[in-house]
Fold this sequence. Notes:
By secondary structure, the chain is of the alpha/beta class. Helix content is 41%, strand content 16%. It has 14 helices and twelve strands. The strands form two sheets. Strands 1, 2, 3, 4, 10, 11 and 12 form a seven-stranded mixed β-sheet that branches. Strands 7-6-8-5-9 form a five-stranded mixed β-sheet. α2 crosses α11 (272-282), α8 (178-185) crosses α9 (195-205) and α9 packs parallel to α14 (342-352).
Amino acid sequence: MSCPGGSFRGRTAAALLAAVVALVAATAQPALAGQKARQPVRLAAGASAFPAAVLSGVAARTGCPVQVVPPVAPGSVPAPGTDLVELPGADAGALIASGSLAVIDERTVSGLGDVPGSLRDAVRDASGGLRAVPYLWSPQLLLARRSVYGAQPPASLRGLFSRNGAARAALPDSPLELAIAARYLGIGDAFSLSHDELASAREVLAPAEPLLHFYGDAATLRSLFRRNRIDLALGNAATLGDQRGAVVAVLPSEGTIATERVLGLVASTKHGLCARRIAGALLGPLAQSQLAAARGLLSVRAATCSALTDEACNALKRALSQTLANSTVAVHPVAADGVAGWPEWLGEWVILHG
């Protein structure tokens, strides 16, 4: 016969255990619900800007899911619900001026302190506040066909601006290339030109313009080299793909301009913490090495060396210490007292093309 007291104690213990389980479940449920309800950070970017492996690694590292949405069109503002935007640094000026991008506390983005100041300074507002995180960059170098120039190509921009060389040369089709002519003229700040300096830059290009090949993207540049239309160009060697071995790249003796890709935190975002974590994760060595390889661009951090071969690390360090030091980082020209703004740059480019 069972003992009534023992049966009571058993029922009491069972009831207590059930209560504990219920309490644990009740306290755990909000956390589980919060995880399930976490909304992804909506990142406006081109379809091929971020390989899936990079974004999955970022999500695993930060606990913040990422959803890529269509990029912001030039001259437009981010669509409602967008948290982060990816775009060329030179295009960020309009978003900064419109107040669409939030000021970023530089201490809150992991790795940002290692990004060179010249890359960060290009995306500050008038008061000095950082409005975007640079994460890749590229200098424009002189690209010369080895079979024509050998291992010692011309080091001066003169080869692009002379009638003799222009018939076999190519230049990116952008008003910002007027800054290259400004570098050739020895003007210090190539993106802050007076009206006379801007006109002088256009006049440097004018004699060669009828003979130059202008290209709008890397595919066109590759085609010009492949079809033997050009022997010299200004551009990014890494975008030449399997033709890169047939081309030698050199930093122009007058210096050059550099472009960058940046991440802007949308001012209206409700996911600022996760957005900053994602930006920091994209500055991590592994993500940087993967993105640089996929995009044909350069990392913004020497710390990326931990994910690179010794040869690639040395090349990155030279680029950050030497090439970047001789580069003016592209910005969207903003009108100021005595300085020409973007509409005037466009106007000079139209005049140049006749």
